[in-house]
Structure formats: structure tokens, C-alpha cells
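re the bet — no i am not wrong, look at it urself. input seq straight from the record:
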Amino acid sequence: MSTAPPFTRAIGEVRPLLAARGCTIAPGHRLRTLAEVIDHLGTHGGTGVIDGTEVRVRRPAAGRTDREKFISGKNKQNAVKSMVVTDAEGRLLFRSPAESASCADITHARKLGLVRLLTEGPAVKILADAGYQGLGAQTGGRVGTPPHRKFKKNAPDWYEEMHERQRKAHSSRRIRVEHRIGHLKNWRSLARHHGRREHMTDIIQFVAGLLSHQQVATASGART
């Protein structure tokens, strides 16, 4: 018999139920897996936008064999990461389970099966940042990343202007996923989590589900 307080037990029971609901894209219509997201984008001719985000967590106890895997290569902090997917308008479609922060963004995308889904599924365009460079070649150009620099030194002025224009154009198309990540991190538990790391996947996904439901309800209210 559990000795946890009733409130704590209730949270533990409700959290996975909310996490399993997925992201709402229309009243009564939810997406729960990355495969469903790719099918949805393919059916509606949409463009997806992906980005990785990190949530700081407590440092694992001394002596644990996997202690170092939670250290982010980007921020040098103990964290878990998740991949967020929106459409081109910024509607939240998916947020992946938590992964240790030492996993590179591109490796995480591969582990989630993104390459296979794009090569074997419908013709879908995905916009991503430089952390996913390399996926374009693996998916037949279906993943678009910022343009590579062809000149490392002494680039002509015309090239610098062109490269900067292309880089800004790409950034402006994928900025909405960063805005959505900002909305997710308005939740304190997704800015920094002090609880048990094994609950992070459920927390990440139920917050995404609640936020997606809110965005659909707001859009429906605006139309009426």
C-alpha cells in the first residue's frame, strides 16, 4: 500500500493519462506520435518545423554510471532534451519523450525515426536549424537547414550579402517553433525541474497537450 499523500498519488495517476492524450490540432482530433504528425502534414500539404529544447534537472547522485550523460554539450548543465514539432503557423503538433542532454539534436531526431518517416512516408518538408545539418542528405532534401558557407575566408561582398539574406529568410520561417517553445517554458516545471527525472517524459508531454488544447480553443473562439 502506498504511503504517499493522496494529492501526490492523484498527480501520479493523472500525469500519464494527460501525457497520453497527445497534441490537439482540432476539436476531437489529436496527434500522439511522430508518424501521425508526418501523415498529417503530408495530407494537408503542410510544412513542419522542428527544434530541440532542454530542461534543467537535478544532477544524478555521485557514483551513478550514467551521471555524465545528462550534461548538455551546449550549456554544460544537467538537463534533458526534447524535440518540438510545429507547423508553419506555429501550431504545436508534437513533443518527443525526454532524452538525456548529451544526445545531439540530429542523433535524437534519428532515434525518433524521423529519417525513416520522411523517406518512406509522404512528401513533407521540414525546416530545422544548424543542429540538424546532415538530415537533408539523408532524406532526399526533405529537411531544410540554414545554408552552408562556401567561403570561410575572404568571401566577396556579394556572397556575404546573399548568404545573410538566405540565412535570415530561413530563420524567419522557423521562428514560430522557438516562440512555441517559449510558451512551453512559461510552465515552471519546464524551465527547471527539481523532481524525479523519470517523470520528465510525462510532464513534457502533458504540458504540450494542454498548451495545444489551449491554442485550438483560442483559435476557435477567435473565429466565432
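see?? The chain has one domain: 23-223. told u. also Helices lie at 6-19, 34-44, 105-111, 114-120, 135-138, 157-184, 200-223. so pay up
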